[in-house]
């Protein structure tokens, strides 16, 4: 079955047309499907429209949030309630084209696990949306190693096993292909249509760029150091201790051979501050290592994922993958 999930926040004007477009495409595919709307605390009448659509159409399912939690939370709820083996999220503002869904499914039929939409001809403001998006996509591709042109496009197709159990926060929904890539997913992309917004107004501005950059730092940390946080904290601590040692030696040298008093230079202060920073970083690294081990061992999680086995008991294979897609790969 195919599960289509749509986060909704104050999109009352577009919902009937969006449902009609999706229904027309999915009926033509002749495959079982469901449409899950996640109402992210809308205040414009979207709630009544969604309830009416659910009452009139058996394939429509609705999740109402108590308040607005953001797009990432709404997208995660859609994944949690989806019952299909393929999950396709898309926006509720009519800028994504449901007619592109068959192209995404065709790529999954070719053996890919994730197919990402690429808004090649994006119909948004060039200065506020398009240009920052191009720079952000290039940066994300470089940092993550997952080469996509458009991480921000909501229209994607996922095999459910590569994202079920993943938990995202902040603005991290755009990084789902990266999470899937950690678990060995085969990822591709196709160019999709993108329409100018005709109803409602955009909920995002330039302030979103800062949030995405902060989340990118988190993603990079989880990718490379989640299982060995001491490499980060210990590395920073080692550099700090080295600076402290050099500052201390320089201060003593100037005192003994140049007649400089300790209070004449900032070196003693630098020595003390970097020494404290180094020791604290090492201690934080040790604490992070203990937390990481507690996380895995208390839940009997594994640090690896198994795609399949041959000539092994099914129970052993199931146990090996019991950590689910939320366990990060070994760095």
Describe the fold and architecture.
- With 331 residues, the chain is α/β, with parallel strands linked by helices.
- It has 2 domains: 2-224, Alpha-Beta Complex (Spore Coat Polysaccharide Biosynthesis Protein SpsA, Chain A); 230-320.
- It is 48% helix and 11% strand.
- It has a 7-stranded mixed β-sheet with strand order 3-2-1-4-6-5-7, with helices on both faces.
- Helix 5 (126-144) runs parallel beside helix 7 (207-225) and helix 8 (230-257) runs antiparallel to helix 9 (267-298).
- The two termini are 34 Å apart.
What percent of residues are in strands?
5-15%
**The CATH homologous superfamily of the largest domain:** Spore Coat Polysaccharide Biosynthesis Protein SpsA, Chain A
The largest sheet has its strands arranged as 3-2-1-4-6-5-7
Order of helices and strands: EHEHEHEHEHEHEHHHH
CATH class of the largest domain: Alpha Beta
In short:
About 50% of the residues lie in helices and about 10% in strands. It has helices at about 15-30, 45-55, 70-80, 100-110, 125-145, 175-180, 205-225, 230-255, 265-300, 315-320, and strands at about 1-10, 35-40, 60-65, 85-90, 115-120, 155-160, 185-190.
């Amino acid at each position: 079955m195919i599960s289509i999930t749509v986060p909704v926040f104050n999109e009352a004007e577009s919902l009937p047309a969006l449902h009609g477009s999706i229904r027309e495409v999915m009926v033509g595919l002749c495959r079982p499907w469901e449409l899950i709307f996640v109402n992210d605390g809308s205040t414009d009448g979207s709630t009544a429209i969604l309830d009416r659509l659910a009452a009139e159409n058996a394939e429509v399912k609705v999740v109402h949030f108590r308040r607005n939690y953001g797009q990432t939370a709404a997208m995660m709820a859609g994944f949690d309630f989806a019952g299909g083996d393929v999950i396709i999220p898309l926006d509720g503002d009519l800028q994504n084209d449901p007619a592109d869904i068959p192209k995404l499914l065709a790529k999954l039929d070719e053996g890919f696990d994730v197919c990402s939409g690429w808004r090649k001809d994006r119909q948004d403001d060039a200065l506020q949306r398009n240009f920052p998006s191009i720079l952000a996509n290039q940066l994300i591709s470089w940092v993550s190693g997952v080469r996509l042109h458009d991480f921000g496009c909501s229209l994607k197709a996922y095999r459910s096993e590569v994202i079920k159990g993943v938990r995202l926060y902040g603005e991290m929904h755009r990084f789902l292909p990266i999470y899937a890539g950690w678990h060995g997913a085969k990822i591709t992309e196709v160019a999709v249509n993108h329409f100018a917004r005709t109803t409602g107004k955009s909920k995002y501005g330039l302030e979103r760029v800062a949030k995405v950059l902060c989340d990118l730092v988190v993603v990079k940390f989880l990718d490379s150091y989640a299982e060995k946080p001491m490499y980060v904290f210990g590395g920073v601590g080692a550099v700090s201790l080295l600076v402290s040692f050099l500052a201390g030696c320089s201060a003593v040298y100037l005192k003994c051979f140049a007649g400089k008093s300790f209070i004449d230079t900032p070196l003693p202060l630098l020595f003390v501050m970097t020494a404290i920073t180094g020791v604290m970083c090492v201690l934080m690294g040790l604490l992070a290592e203990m937390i990481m081990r507690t996380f895995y061992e208390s839940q009997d999680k594994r640090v690896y994922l198994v795609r399949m086995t041959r000539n092994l008991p099914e129970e052993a294979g199931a146990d090996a993958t019991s950590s689910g897609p939320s366990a990060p790969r070994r760095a």
